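The protein record filed below.
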Amino acid sequence: MGYLRNDHLVAVDDLENLKEELLVNMRQILAGKSERPIKKWHKASEARKLLGFSPGKLQVVRNSGLLTFSKIGGNIYYDRDDLMDLFEKSKVVRTK
């Protein structure tokens, strides 16, 4: 579809072609976003959001040794796998 002027008519086929082009472009953009790598290390604030913990609860879990961390400068980082393992290790199986 070329440049349009005010005195040009647009056919339904032209609109359908434009719609298809837009859908293809949108799918490509959305597919590209899903291919982003998952973040490996999370700051404390991000870990709290993932876990649903308050700052104090996160510190208690860290101090108890249930959750490993790395400290660089004044920042504490948590490995995503360790955050997920915390839930796996804490699963409770109920028996009838």
Q: What stands out?
A: The mean pLDDT is 86.
